[in-house]
Amino acid sequence: QLPTGLYKKVLVILHDSVLPYMNEPTLMMDFLTVAYGIGGAISLLALNGLFILIHQHNLEYPDFYKKLYSLLDPSIYHVKYRARFFHLTDLFLSSSHLPAYLVAAFIKRLARLALTAPPEALLMIIPFLCNLFRRHPACRVLVHRPGGPADMSEDPYVMEEEEPSKSRALESSLWEIQSLQSHYHPDVAKAAAVLNHSLSEMEDDISGLLELSAYELFDKEVKKKAVDVPLEFEQVRGLFGKKNDIFAEHFSLD
């Protein structure tokens, strides 16, 4: 057992400062799998080392995707390890051999959590979901279901279900993205509207969006050139716009 602070310090550097220099990196399997099962930020940080062991040293982890799915909670859009987590999640969901129900469960859960996410996270997650649709065409039924959410009395997706195969995500519809099309931030609304049209074959590059911060978003808005918008196109002819109304007899605009 390690203190939480020490766990984090070790896991942050393990994948690039320890594993490459070990003669037998597989000796770290037990340590990383236990860390992955702890939950929270420690599980997110353990992903880096597990990724190396799974892809380079044939580590088998039967419940890996179930555990990864369980890590998706509202905090993932706010933690400082967000960029690292989504970079690795993107890699783990890149295989075209993953079952449609699994990818659909990830898409649906990420979309549901996006309803309370900050704008800088939304500008990253929407292209992320679009890339998943490009890789897994079977999941496009979530967007192009006939009738969509209008024909559903309730959403069949079970948010509380820990097993992706039982979440009924493929039976659902992605009404959450439709809701984001009315988001208060115009860039988010514009990004969400992309799913109203056919997606291009080429994936979006999200690498530059992973570490987008609220400060950068605000700075971008502040530096935009102001455009003068005409507020009136007809000259006012009375207090309420009518030339000979009763108010014009008693009140003047001068």
UniProtKB/TrEMBL annotation:
GO cellular component, one term: small-subunit processome
Transmembrane as UniProt keyword: yes
Domain of life assignment: Eukaryota
GO biological process: ribosome biogenesis
UniProt xrefs under InterPro entries: CCAAT-binding_factor, Noc4
Keywords tagged on the record: Membrane, Transmembrane, Transmembrane helix
Residue intervals passing through the bilayer: 31-54, 85-107
Family: Belongs to the CBF/MAK21 family.
Protein name (database record): NOC4L protein
